[in-house]
Design goal:
The chain is an alpha+beta fold and 316 residues long. It has a single domain, classed as Roll (2,3-Dihydroxybiphenyl 1,2-Dioxygenase, domain 1). Helices cover 16% and strands 34% of the residues. It contains five helices and 16 strands. Strands 2-3-4-1-13-16-15-14 form an eight-stranded mixed β-sheet. Strand 11 and strand 12 (197-201) form a beta hairpin. The radius of gyration is 19 Å and the shape is globular. Residues 7-131, 152-269 form the VOC domain. InterPro entries: Extradiol_RC_dioxygenase, Glyas_Bleomycin-R_OHBP_Dase, Glyas_Fos-R_dOase_dom, VOC_core. It holds the Pfam family Glyoxalase.
Length: 316
C-alpha cells in the first residue's frame, strides 16, 4: 500500500437523545443534518449524520441515539477528543457563542495552537481550533453565519492503551507522518487539509468503556472502491484482522481494532449523501436501505420524532 489515507472520514459516537443531539450539533454548532437513517444492525435506533452542506468526508460526525444507553466512560481505546476547525478570526465568535448558550468552555494550548475545549450534553469531549487550511463552509444555520461556521474536523486526540503500537500503526499502516511530541502527546499528520492532525497520548491510558458520551469508532478515508480493496489487503497483511467490506449506502466500510483498543474504520469517499436525496433536501426525510423499506411503518413507530430547529437563544 503506497497511498496514505488523506485523513478522517467520519467519527461515530453514542448519545441518548435525538432531539437534544440535533439541538446541540445543528442548533448550537451550526452543522447540517445531512442524513437521517437507522443503525442497519439495530433498526430501532437512529443513525444521524451531521457535517458541512454536503456531508463531505472530513466533516461528518454521526450518532446512535439510544435512550436506554448506559453512561460511558472516556478512556483508553477510544477517540478522547474530537477537534473542530473554524476559520481564522472566528475563535472569539465561538467563545461568545458558547457562553451565550451556557456551554462551559476552557481555553487550552497544545503544539503551539489555542483550543476552546467543551463538552456536548452527553459528555463527549470537543474542541475548536482556528486554522487557515480547509475550504470555508457554505452552510449557515441559526446563530452561526457561514463565515464563522465549522469547516470540518481539525483532527482528534486518540486515547490509546498501547500508545507506541498505535503510533506505529498510524505511521506504518495508515501512512501518517509523525511531526512532533510535546508533553503528554505525540502528533501525526495526514495529507488532507482537514481532519489531518492526530494527537496520541505518550503514556498508556486506562481503558474506558462504551456508552452514551463516548466515541464508538473513527473512520479514515479511502478515495474509491479500488483503493478500499487495497486497504483491506494492506491492513490484513500488516497483522490486523479487518472485517469484510460492508455497504453502508453512502460509503463502503471495513473495520478493525488496533492494538491500543481503538476501533478503526476505513470508508470510501463516494458515493456520498446525495445518492438518495436531492442536495437541497438532505436530512429532511428518514432514509432506509431498500431491504428495510417493507418495514418502514414499523420502524417509524419505534423511532421518536425530532426536528432540526433554531434555538430560542437565536430567536431573540
Amino acid at each position: 500500500m503506497t497511498t496514505p489515507t488523506a485523513g478522517i472520514h467520519h467519527i461515530t459516537a453514542f448519545v441518548r437523545d435525538a432531539q437534544r443531539t440535533a439541538d446541540f450539533y445543528a442548533g448550537a454548532l451550526g452543522l447540517r443534518l445531512v442524513k437521517k437513517t437507522i443503525n442497519f444492525d439495530a433498526p430501532e435506533v437512529y443513525h444521524l449524520y451531521f457535517g458541512d452542506e454536503a456531508g463531505s468526508p472530513g466533516t461528518i460526525i454521526t450518532f446512535f441515539p439510544f435512550q436506554q444507553s448506559r453512561k460511558g466512560r472516556i478512556g483508553g481505546g477510544q477517540v478522547g477528543v474530537t477537534t473542530y476547525l473554524v476559520p481564522e478570526g472566528a475563535f472569539g465568535f465561538w467563545q461568545q457563542r458558547l457562553a451565550k448558550l451556557n456551554v462551559a468552555a476552557e481555553v487550552t494550548t497544545r503544539f503551539g495552537e489555542t483550543y476552546l475545549a467543551f463538552e456536548d450534553p452527553d459528555g463527549l469531549k470537543l474542541e475548536i481550533v482556528e486554522r487557515r487550511e480547509g475550504r470555508a463552509s457554505a452552510w449557515s444555520f441559526g446563530g452561526v453565519p457561514a463565515d464563522k461556521a465549522i469547516k470540518g474536523f481539525g483532527g482528534a486526540i486518540l486515547y490509546s492503551t498501547a500508545p507506541a503500537q498505535t503510533a506505529d500503526l498510524l505511521v506504518n499502516v495508515m501512512g501518517l507522518t509523525k511531526v512532533g511530541q510535546e508533553g503528554a502527546y505525540m502528533r501525526f499528520q495526514s495529507t488532507a487539509d482537514i481532519g489531518n492532525l492526530i494527537d496520541v497520548n505518550v503514556t498508556r491510558m486506562e481503558a474506558g468503556h462504551g456508552g452514551a458520551g463516548t466515541v464508538h469508532h473513527i473512520a479514515w478515508r479511502a478515495k474509491d472502491d479500488e483503493e478500499h480493496e487495497r486497504w483491506r489487503s494492506h491492513v490484513a497483511g500488516s497483522g490486523y484482522q479487518p472485517t469484510p467490506i460492508v455497504d453502508r449506502q453512502y460509503f463502503k466500510a471495513l473495520y478493525f481494532r488496533e492494538a491500543g483498543g481503538i476501533l478503526f474504520e476505513i470508508a470510501t469517499d463516494p458515493p456520498g449523501f446525495a445518492r438518495d436525496e436531492e442536495p437541497a433536501k438532505l436530512g429532511e426525510k428518514l432514509m432506509l436501505p431498500e431491504w428495510f423499506e417493507a418495514s418502514r411503518g414499523q420502524i417509524e413507530q419505534l423511532l421518536t420524532p425530532f426536528e432540526v430547529r433554531v434555538l430560542e437563544e437565536d430567536k431573540q
